[in-house]
Specification:
The complex is a heterotrimer of chains A (309), B (519) and C (330). By secondary structure, chain A is mostly helical. Chain A is built from 13 helices and no strands. The longest helix of chain A has 39 residues. Chain C is mostly helical and 330 residues long. Helices cover 70% and strands 0% of the residues of chain C. Chain C is built from 15 helices and no strands. The radius of gyration of chain C is 24 Å and the shape is flat. The chains are: A mainly alpha (309), B alpha+beta (519), C mainly alpha (330). The interface between A and C is large, with 75 and 64 residues.
């Protein structure tokens, strides 16, 4: 396992560089930020000064070499917008998103397992129909719309929750509920699908014939088999969350990395964009390694059961 | 406290009883406001903005998002323009006069201290001007207010400052009202995110991404403000900002939309912003004045104002609204006359103008409430006049490439939707940019028109006013680079617990000291 | 790697499957797909709905003509469910007095012309690539997976802005972004399934008989993996519609005068307090389409799987009675 881990980490280094190089090149295609940072009536001289001061007049390859040189010295550049250290800004924003994404995914997986199992017990039954309708609807509502309606209903009309912000536990409810729906909806489908298949496997019959209770059959036998595809999908969904909490962060004023990223893109704040991308890329790579390892573990635990049957 | 309509600084001598009351209020409030979890009560003013200020650097305070927090709260300028009267009023300078064609002398207020304890004097004022205007710092205010011109500054004695301009500049004091004074200890090589100033509030904390807290400063030379603290948060959705007022999470919210349906919690104020189409008259079909006139006739300004903006905006006939020096009250908006527009286009066509050439209607998405709707209405109305209009909604950076020189050359004629805000109060800030043939945001001009503008820039007093009024009339008659649409009205959300009357500069400079808790 | 989704599907590759099923169920297998469909009310309704929506997108825009763009500022934000202004305003009017109904119809075409190609392109490229990588394993698999990592950690928002900036914000370009960023999803799933299959007996057998890798992939691997991927694709269809909507929310998606359901929800959100129908109707359209597509896909997966098909033919009461046990097992 350790050798595997080391290999994975080493083999992830190159893709990481590819991501940054790609982002670097693409970002430069979106134009010179000078007019964003200078007053509208700035003279050409001022524009040239700005461009030179920020090294944007050099050839792309030189800029890139400068950047990677800086990275090796742990100098990630300065934000054009705020003048702060770009890496600091990204590091400060990252935990907020991570907390949000982690809480959301844990809740989504737990809820989806419960609902998915419940639905799978009687395929095409009432519970199944209801849960699949609800989960599908949940997964197909635009998140920004849901967030605004949520604020309207729960913060204004009912007054139960704060509209936005980060202070207090109440402030977590709406952002998480908004983020939760899609992963939950998708996972219910996946869990249900694999549970239906798993419950019709011979070893389940075996377990039943040995007199195992229904609950035990579901949790100890079927769920193990069904967990693997759910894990893969949950992993992909988490990656999506880390990358895509933008909308929720924008609406609720959540100081996370998604908001930082979209702002830095729209403001052509290149150094911040690189740092944010680098950080999320590292996190996503780590997550993928974790998922694969989790998968291997799960597989090792599951396999003997299947083989015996 | 100070009644909200009178400027604080003008009447400081008579406000001692009020000061005492304010201090008492502040004291009683402090202990409550310290805990984070408890909802901020009366002594903390909670403001919600549209975006986080990128920095609070004083020499960038002409940027709306920076200025709204820092100006007149944390830092103060030498002189200040009263947004109601348009007059300049003393602040850190008590009097000023032109001592020659190119030299102005300022008498400075005595007994003023910076928040770091150092005294305010002519040296600090000179340092501030040098730092913002003559340095390599690249301050935004430098380009915005002063252009290329370097100023010579001299501290004659502790309370006397002279400023010399390369050319005669009748509105130098107005320009200086954009410079927020900082102490000599401020870095000259780097911008400072959290400046020290002479204002009634000092920056207590900035939780990046979350909020900025200002707290009232005991050593302030003027009246102590009613609120002991001011807390700024930001939400980019206007509906969320509105919701924060409704739910009592904020006291003041900026930049609301008429559709946020705030009822009596929403207060309208003229925000000095004007919306217009700028027509690229160097390319067909816009190179024919009849086509440009047709565009003016084809736009149903009344309909737009009444339907889209619930009658809150005003039909515009020029780029600056009432209250700006140079606004011409005689001008009336172009009549909505589709038949006339059609016949003008037909005339131009008959004369060989290619009226079927595509006009790109370039619009910045989310620049102001309902801009998408407005853009679609304009596209429809211009098409009805017989023009071939393609709508292009662009994000900010891309829109800027169309807005300022050098203009892109690779596409046909552009009609650019521009929202122009004249924060300074003098038409020169509009005309120099938008109408000079070399102006940064001007497609074209004529030599005669340029001469008029140059003359107006150098004039002062009533002559100046008249000269600019003539310029706006001339543009509508002879130049027609613009199709004016409306003077906008901003909406501030305000909870019932706050007394405050917004004015035309509230969006750029929100003076917390003008706000008082309602009893 | 083994997922139970493929488990069920893998069954029909084996000759033994059908024979072991109870006789009674076997003859139901002969039912035509359509008759089978009519037996399932939910699937029938979903199918009908999709046909209607599809037809609307196909011929609707031609029928409503310029109704979708005809403005009338004096007639803005009229409430829905009234025939007082004629059928075209039954769903109300929008902020510029245009018919909501007509706009929904026109928007349906844009929505589909973004979502369908985006899903199809990503599905085809991602699946083929993933199956190939998983079948061959080794360096091909490693390189492919790292490329997937790269795409997944790449900010799609940046891509959107680049496309907006360099090209024009047309539907075609949005398709490009969405397709590219969703390839890894299929790539990873197809790779996992195919890697597991390539060690199975029936693939081994084909290999011993000298079949070429591409032939094995085409004949034996893809048919087995396909149901899972198609299910994924239906889920993705929904995701793509939502992603397009989110891009609109951030101001970097489809731009007016083009109109899609996502854009309508995004634009309508500012009127939630004054004209709720502006964002609710297009939102409902998205939700209905998604649910219908998923219900039908779920049904289709069972219906095309001989090992599961008998379930659909059972009377409803019996279905609920007990969890059926599949007898066949390789």
């Amino acid at each position: 396992m350790l050798i595997y881990l080391r290999k994975r980490i080493i083999s992830s280094a190159l893709p990481l560089v590819v991501v940054i190089v790609g982002v670097f090149a693409l970002a430069r295609m979106t134009g010179n930020p000078a007019s964003l940072y200078l007053p509208l009536n700035a003279t050409q001289q001022m524009r040239d000064d700005f461009t030179a001061r920020n090294g944007l007049d050099k050839p792309l390859l030189v800029q890139m070499a400068d950047y990677f040189g800086g990275v090796l010295r742990l100098d990630f550049g300065q934000s054009l917008r705020t003048g702060q250290d770009a890496a600091d800004m990204a590091l400060r924003a990252f935990p907020a998103t991570l907390q949000l994404a982690a809480t959301t995914m844990v809740l989504a997986v737990l809820l989806a397992l419960m609902v998915g199992c419940w639905a799978a017990l009687k395929p095409n039954g009432v519970a199944d129909r209801i849960s699949s309708f609800v989960s599908m609807a949940a997964a197909s509502i635009p998140d920004f719309w849901l967030a605004i309606v949520g604020i309207w209903v729960f913060a204004i009309t009912l007054g139960w929750l704060p509209t936005s912000g980060v202070s207090g536990a109440g402030a977590w409810v709406l952002p998480i509920a908004t983020l939760l729906l899609r992963p939950f909806g998708v996972l219910v489908q996946i869990v249900r699908g694999s549970m239906v298949s798993a419950l019709s496997e011979p070893y389940i019959k075996l377990a039943r014939s040995r007199g195992a209770g229904e609950l035990r059959v579901v949790t100890h036998h079927a769920l193990r088999n069904a967990a693997a595809p759910a894990l893969t999908v949950a992993g992909d969904l988490t990656v999506g969350l880390v990358n895509g909490a933008v909308v929720v962060e924008t609406i609720f004023g959540w100081p996370g990395i998604g908001k930082l990223m979209i702002d830095s893109i729209l403001q052509r704040d290149f150094a911040v964009l690189h740092s944010a991308v680098l950080l999320t890329a590292v996190a996503i790579f780590a997550l993928n390694i974790l998922i694969d390892m989790g998968y291997a573990l799960l597989d090792a635990r599951v396999r003997p059961v299947t083989v015996k049957a | 406290m100070t009644s909200s309509s009178t400027p604080l600084f003008a009447v400081s001598a008579v406000k001692w009883p009020a000061l005492a009351a304010g201090a008492l209020l502040a004291l009683s409030g402090c202990s409550v406001a310290n805990s984070d979890a408890a909802p901020a009560s009366g002594s903390t003013l909670r403001v919600v903005l549209g975006q986080e200020p990128p920095t609070l650097e004083a020499c960038e305070s002409n940027l709306t998002s920076t200025g709204v927090v820092v100006r007149s709260n944390v830092t103060e300028p030498l002189v200040e323009r009263n947004p109601q009267t348009g007059e300049l009023e003393p602040l850190l300078a008590t009097e000023w006069k032109a001592t020659s064609d190119t030299e102005w002398t300022f008498k400075l207020r005595e007994g003023v201290k910076f928040q770091d304890g150092t005294p305010f004097n002519a040296e600090a004022a000179a340092f501030t001007i040098d730092r913002a205007v003559n340095s390599k710092l690249g301050c935004n205010v430098e380009g915005y207010v002063f252009g290329d011109a370097d100023l010579k500054v001299k501290a004659v004695d502790d309370t006397t400052l002279t400023v010399t301009t390369p050319e005669p500049d009748p509105i130098l004091p107005l320009r200086l009202s954009f410079l927020e004074v900082v102490p000599t200890s401020t870095s000259t090589t780097a911008k400072v995110r959290e400046p020290v100033g002479t204002g009634p509030y000092k920056i207590e904390a900035w939780d990046a991404g979350q909020k900025i807290t200002l707290s009232s400063w005991d050593g302030y030379w003027g009246d102590k403000p009613a609120y002991a603290k001011a807390e700024y948060q930001w939400r980019s959705e206007s509906s969320v900002r509105a919701a924060m007022i409704t739910s009592g999470e904020a006291d003041v919210a900026l930049g609301l939309s008429p559709d946020d349906n705030m009822g009596e919690l929403g207060i309208d104020y003229p925000n000095n912003e004007t919306v217009a189409l700028r027509l690229e008259a160097t390319k067909a079909p816009l190179n024919d004045i009849r086509v440009r006139q047709a565009i003016n006739y084809a736009i149903d300004k009344e309909g737009i104002v009444n339907s889209l903006y619930q009658g809150k905006h005003k039909v515009a006939a020029q780029l600056v609204p009432e209250g700006i020096v140079g606004h011409n009250p005689e001008l009336k908006g172009w009549a909505f006359d589709l038949d006339k527009a059609k016949s003008l286009v037909a005339e131009a066509k008959a004369d060989g103008v290619d009226t079927s050439a595509q006009i790109s209607l370039v619009v910045r998405s989310a620049q102001f409430p309902k801009i998408t709707e407005l853009a679609q209405v304009l596209q429809e109305q211009l098409s009805q006049a017989g023009l071939n209009v393609k709508l292009k909604m662009l994000e900010t950076s891309q829109h800027l490439t169309y807005q300022v020189r050098p203009f892109p050359d690779d596409e046909g004629a552009v009609a650019l939707m521009t929202q122009h805000g004249n924060q300074a109060g003098d038409a020169a800030f509009t005309v120099d940019q938008y109408m000079l043939s070399t102006g940064a945001q001007s497609y074209f001009g004529t030599p005669a028109f340029d001469a008029m503008i140059k003359k107006a820039d150098a004039a002062s007093g009533d002559d100046r006013k008249k000269a600019f009024e003539d310029i706006f009339a001339y543009q509508n008659d002879k130049v027609v680079q613009f199709a004016h649409i409306s003077h906008q009205t901003g909406i501030i959300g305000k909870s019932k617990s706050v007394n405050y009357t917004p004015n035309s500069s509230s969006g750029d400079e929100l003076r917390v000291s003008e706000m008082t808790p309602a009893s | 790697m083994k997922t139970s989704l493929s488990e069920a599907a893998a069954g029909d590759q084996l000759p033994a499957v059908g024979q072991l099923q109870p006789l009674k169920d076997r003859k139901d297998g002969n039912l035509s797909l359509l008759r089978l469909l009519l037996k399932d009310r939910f699937a029938t309704v979903s199918g009908l709905l999709l046909v209607i929506i599809g037809l609307t997108a196909l011929i609707g825009p031609a029928l409503v003509g310029d109704l979708a763009t005809k403005q009338n500022l004096l007639f803005a934000n009229k409430a829905p469910f009234s025939l007082a202004y004629g059928w075209e305003y039954f769903l109300g009017s929008d902020s510029l007095g245009r018919s909501m109904l007509a706009r929904l119809v026109v928007a349906s075409r844009t929505t589909f012309s973004v979502a369908l190609p985006a899903v199809a392109v990503a599905l085809v490229i991602g699946s083929l690539w993933g199956v190939w990588a998983g079948y061959h394993r080794g360096w091909r698999e490693n390189v492919s997976m790292r490329i997937a990592d790269v795409i997944m950690s790449f900010p799609s928002l940046l891509l959107a802005v680049v496309v907006l900036y360099v090209f024009s914000p047309s539907a075609g370009n949005i398709v490009l972004i969405l397709a590219l960023t969703r390839i890894p999803i299929y790539l990873r799933t197809a790779r996992a399934e195919s890697a597991e299959l390539q060690s199975r007996t029936f693939v081994d057998a084909a290999r011993t008989f000298g079949a070429k890798p591409n032939a094995i992939i085409g004949r034996h691997v893809i048919p087995v993996v396909l149901p899972t991927l198609l299910t994924l694709a239906t889920l993705e269809f929904c995701y793509v519609m939502l992603a397009e909507s989110s891009l609109s929310f951030l101001g970097i998606g489809i731009q007016p005068p083009d109109v899609s359901w996502g854009l309508m929800v995004s634009q309508g959100r500012q009127y939630l307090q004054t004209a709720w129908w502006l964002s609710i109707f297009p939102g409902v359209a998205i939700v209905l389409t998604t649910i219908a597509a998923n219900v039908l896909a779920a049904w289709l997966r069972i219906a095309t799987d001989p090992a599961q098909r008998w379930r659909l033919a059972l009377p409803r009461r019996r279905l609920i009675a007990r969890i059926p046990v599949k007898e066949a097992k390789p």
